[in-house]
Design goal:
By secondary structure, the chain is an all-alpha fold. It has one domain. Helices cover about 65% and strands about 0% of the residues. The protein is built from four helices and no strands. The longest helix is centred in the middle third of the chain and has 21 residues. The two termini are about 20 Å apart.
Length: about 110
C-alpha cells in the first residue's frame, strides 16, 4: 500500500468539508479515512436508490390520476436519474450516521 500524499489528503479533506464543515480542518486524514469515505458514498447511493421510489406530495385533484402519474414518475426517476447526482437528504443522513467513525479513524 502506497503512502497517501498531502495533495490526496487535502482533496479528501475538501470533500469531507462539504459533509462536516470546518471541523475537518483539524482531522488527521489517513488510509482509514479514505476507506470510510468509500463507505459513505456507498450508503448515500443506497439511500438514493430508495428515494427514487418515494412519491411526491399530493397536489390535489383526482387521487387516482395523481397515483398513476406518480408511478410513471417513479419509473422515470429510476431509469433516467444520472448516477453522479445524490439527494441532499441522503448525503446528510449518511454523513451524520458515519461522523463518529471518521472521528475514531484519526487515532
Amino acid at each position: 500500500m502506497s503512502a497517501i500524499s498531502d495533495e490526496e489528503k487535502d482533496d479528501l479533506r475538501e470533500i469531507l468539508h462539504n459533509f462536516y464543515g470546518d471541523q475537518v480542518v483539524a482531522w488527521k486524514i489517513n488510509q482509514k479515512s479514505f476507506e470510510l469515505f468509500g463507505e459513505l458514498i456507498s450508503k448515500t447511493k443506497q439511500c438514493d436508490q430508495a428515494m427514487k421510489f418515494v412519491p411526491l406530495p399530493y397536489g390535489g385533484g383526482n387521487p387516482i390520476n395523481w397515483s398513476i402519474k406518480q408511478v410513471r414518475k417513479i419509473i422515470t426517476r429510476h431509469f433516467l436519474k444520472p448516477g453522479n447526482k445524490h439527494y441532499i437528504i441522503c448525503m446528510k443522513f449518511s454523513a451524520v450516521s458515519m461522523k463518529t467513525k471518521f472521528i475514531l479513524a484519526q487515532s
